[in-house]
């Protein structure tokens, strides 16, 4: 049995994603198994990559349509949990700010990603049965387009949260920094997927294209992004079990809590910051009550994001 360059990349994935899978379990046990937390999605993503790589290695000695199908499907749907991990981290940050993004926005993003995953499975099955490895698969193209759209919306959410980073506890700000580091890596991975599905280029294919391009634009960025998540999760403080982190308006926050203290308690030297914090909140409340957004009702996730960005911009100008 000869180990080729492509098989070596599959071995690298197994070696890398076994510890990532283990750390995913540790982080989920530490921070919670809720889907919205993001850590359980690290487990899901690791499983997808492990199954895909193992199937590729099995195909060396036992090639079959079923083995290739499983490998292609796992490669196709992996982009969904990779992107949603960022959304999970941002969901936690959203609970620390005075003007949180509405929950339906996060739910809408998850639904779009789930739709992309379903199309990715179907498109992967069709691709494995195709005689032409470079055929343009409509389902796979739609899936990667949905994943890209979800990623763009996640970046918008990230930008809206960064505007209010001053209100986020210092220990929790590393979640935003993690998303900032992982986003360019995910962008490179999505770019590779877009080229595979939309450009009929023989150098871009998961199974028949350039192995170096696949390694540098798909495998390595994924491993680095997961490493960023793991380091962040290991250094992130654990929320108390009785702390649901539900949003509390600034007017209702106890006076002893501070957005600039690592312990969350106002020190004697921070009273001036506390007064400035209250003044900023009062100004934000007036702007919100005077703006048309305070009278708006309903609307979808995209319109909510638009008005959130508009209100944040107006508040910063004020």
What does this protein structure show overall?
There is one protein chain. This protein has 318 residues and is mostly helical. Helices cover 69% and strands 0% of the residues. It is built from 10 helices and no strands. It is globular. The termini are far apart.
Write the layout of secondary structure elements.
Layout: H1 5-31, H2 39-61, H3 65-77, H4 79-94, H5 103-129, H6 138-163, H7 173-198, H8 211-235, H9 271-290, H10 301-317
Helix pairs in contact: 1-2, 1-8, 2-3, 2-4, 3-5, 4-5, 4-6, 4-7, 5-6, 5-10, 6-7, 6-10, 7-8
List the main descriptive attributes of the protein structure presented here.
10 helices; single chain; mainly alpha; 69% helix
Number of discrete helical segments: 10
Rounded to the nearest angstrom, the distance between the terminal CA atoms is 69 Å
* Cα radius of gyration in angstroms: 22 Å
Shape: globular
- Give the amount of beta strand, in percent: under 5%
**Mean pLDDT, nearest integer?**
77
In terms of structural class, how would the helical and strand content be classed? mainly alpha
Share in helix: 55-70%
Uncertain spans: 244-274, 284-295
């Amino acid at each position: 049995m000869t180990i080729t360059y492509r098989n070596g990349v599959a071995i690298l994935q197994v070696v890398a994603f076994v510890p990532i899978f283990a750390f995913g379990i540790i982080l989920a046990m530490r921070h919670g198994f809720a889907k919205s937390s993001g850590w359980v999605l690290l487990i899901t993503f690791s499983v997808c990559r492990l199954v895909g790589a193992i199937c590729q290695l099995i195909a060396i000695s036992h090639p079959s349509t079923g083995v290739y199908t499983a490998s292609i499907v796992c490669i196709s749907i992996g982009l969904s949990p990779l992107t949603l991990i960022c959304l999970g981290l941002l969901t936690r940050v959203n609970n620390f700010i005075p003007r949180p993004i509405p929950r339906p926005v996060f739910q809408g993003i998850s639904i779009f990603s789930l739709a992309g995953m379903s199309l990715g499975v179907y498109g992967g099955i069709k691709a494995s049965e195709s005689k032409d490895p470079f055929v343009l698969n409509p389902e796979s193209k739609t899936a990667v387009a949905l994943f890209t759209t979800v990623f763009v919306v996640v970046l918008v959410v990230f930008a809206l949260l960064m505007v209010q980073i001053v209100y986020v506890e210092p220990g929790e700000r590393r979640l935003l920094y993690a998303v900032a580091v992982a986003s360019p890596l995910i962008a490179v991975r999505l770019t590779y997927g877009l080229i595979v599905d939309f450009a009929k280029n023989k150098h871009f294919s998961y199974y028949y294209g350039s192995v170096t391009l696949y390694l540098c634009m798909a495998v390595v960025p994924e491993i680095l992004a997961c490493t960023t998540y793991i380091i962040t999760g290991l250094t992130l403080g654990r929320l108390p079990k009785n702390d649901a982190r539900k949003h509390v308006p600034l007017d209702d926050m106890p006076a002893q809590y501070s957005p600039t203290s690592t312990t969350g308690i106002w020190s004697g030297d921070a009273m001036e910051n506390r007064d400035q914090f209250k003044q900023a909140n009062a100004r934000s409340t007036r702007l919100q009550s005077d703006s048309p957004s305070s009278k708006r009702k309903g609307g979808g996730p995209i319109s909510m994001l638009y008005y959130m960005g508009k209100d944040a911009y107006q508040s910063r100008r004020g």
